[in-house]
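STRUCTURE:
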């Protein structure tokens, strides 16, 4: 069950967090920043969706009707962090978008009890994940020759302007991904995707779940 959550500040916590993260994203996310600035959020609901710290958005329909894209695939921006002065730790946030509209935010702590240092909001380790059913992901991986994978981990991600399927974590937020063009080692630190030589494709397809991170990094070009 949802509970109504109101904030007495001029701008709600959620509006502020959405604005901060969208300001740091590429220009194609301007669509979402504009709707926040124009007051698309009418009120906030918390405690639903099986996620106790999830806060959902309800809309000012006069504004949302201008921005809604009914057939647009939903996505989330995960791995965003911001420092909470009360708990004295970084809080991990995930922002959700659906049908062209901001939809909600989830955190690993109750953000209603936080006092954020907004200057510390960081997207360096963030990932854009697109909604795709597990069946669709499984079919895509099968078509790409990946027959063994961890169903709870694989998902579609946006890397730059390329859609890929996330396969597994490596180190420091880096990960191994695949699309129709091949395998990639995605470096969070440098915000780049390095294509793996086709020489290693057979080994990765058969063994990537069991390969050490060191071995996978050895595929990087010199």
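SEQUENCE:
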């Amino acid at each position: 069950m949802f509970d109504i959550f109101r904030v007495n500040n001029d701008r709600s916590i959620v509006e502020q967090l959405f604005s901060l993260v969208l300001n740091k994203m590429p220009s194609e996310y301007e669509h979402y920043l504009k709707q926040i600035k124009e007051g698309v959020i009418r009120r906030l609901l918390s405690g639903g969706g099986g996620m106790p710290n999830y806060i959902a958005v309800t809309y000012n329909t006069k504004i949302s009707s201008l921005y809604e894209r009914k057939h647009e695939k939903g996505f989330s921006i995960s791995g965003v962090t911001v420092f909470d002065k009360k708990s004295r730790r970084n809080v991990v946030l995930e922002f959700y978008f659906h049908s062209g509209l901001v939809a909600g935010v989830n955190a690993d702590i109750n953000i209603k009890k936080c006092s954020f240092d907004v200057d510390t909001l960081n997207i360096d380790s963030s990932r854009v994940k697109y909604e795709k059913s597990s069946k669709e992901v499984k079919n895509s991986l099968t078509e790409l020759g990946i027959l063994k994978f961890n169903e709870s981990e694989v998902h579609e991600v946006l890397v730059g302007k390329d859609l890929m399927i996330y396969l597994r974590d490596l180190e420091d937020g880096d990960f191994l991904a695949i699309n129709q063009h091949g395998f990639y080692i995605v470096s969070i630190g440098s915000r780049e995707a390095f294509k793996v030589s086709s020489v290693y494709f057979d080994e990765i397809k058969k063994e990537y779940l069991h390969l050490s991170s060191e071995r996978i990094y050895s595929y990087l070009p010199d």
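REMARK: Residues 1-11 have pLDDT under 50 and may be disordered.
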